[in-house]
Amino acid sequence: MATFPQVKLTPKNISTTDFYFLEGIKANDTKTLNEIYQRFLPSVKKYVLANSGTQSDALDVFQDGLMVVYKKLKNEDLQLSSTFHTYLFSVCKFIWFNQLKKKHRKIVQSEPTLDIIADVNIEHEYMELEKQKLFESKLNELPSESMKVLKLFLSKKSIKQIANIMGYTEAYAKRKKYKAKMQLISAIKADSRYSSYSSGTS
Question: Which pLDDT value is given to residue 15?
């Protein structure tokens, strides 16, 4: 598969409008993001609805597409050889195309462009996003106490801080964290999506 060089975005190699959109995504600017939704969501929605999807599916795909772009911008690993709209639309098509394949649904319109499929980094970012969603969904399904302990741990709280917040001894906090971690790992591995993610492209 082809790979693309890392590029640092500047107004010199993309249009002023596209630079505005990309910088807005990178900065998580609410005004810019709202404008992106208003301008570009309709075309993604039309494509998803024409290919066995729903309004909710379209919104999820669009949000995932923006997240892929955001991650690539943060890593300074985005090659924009077309307009921002074309790029974002192709990423969203790539995401929906993969979801349809998993669900064994028919694809009516054209597959995503070959140059987007060939971008290994897009596939990598997409898989990482899917893994993150699986992790978060299983974390939120844990018993409330276990979930709270793990969320405190993931927010970089020390065992001592977790013990103070939860009213535990430090020894019990360590045991509780370990038990909650094992619960989460078991829940993730029991999910049907786990095997495809762990054996997929890395």
Answer: 85
Contact by Cβ (8 Å): 69, 78? yes
Place of tokens 């404008």: 35
What does the pLDDT read at residue 192?
Answer: 77
Residue 57 pLDDT exceeds 60: yes
HSE-CB at 51 with a 13 A cutoff on CA atoms is: 28
Tell me: do 103 and 147 sit in the same domain.
no
Instruction: Give yes or no: residues 27 and 100 share one domain.
Output: yes
Cα 49 to the chain's mean position, in Å?
A: 21
31 lies in the same domain as 99: yes
CA distance 201 to 128: 10
Are the C-beta atoms of residues 149 and 180 closer than 8 Å to each other? yes
Residue 121 lies in a domain: no
Instruction: Report the predicted TM-score, pTM, of the whole model to 2 decimal places.
Output: 0.64
State the alpha helices, DSSP H only, in the chain.
Answer: 16-26, 30-49, 55-74, 84-103, 114-117, 120-139, 144-154, 159-166, 170-190, 192-198
Query: What is the count of structural domains for the chain?
Result: 2
Distance CA 3, CA 126 (A): 16
Query: What Rg value do the Cα atoms of the chain yield, rounded?
Result: 20
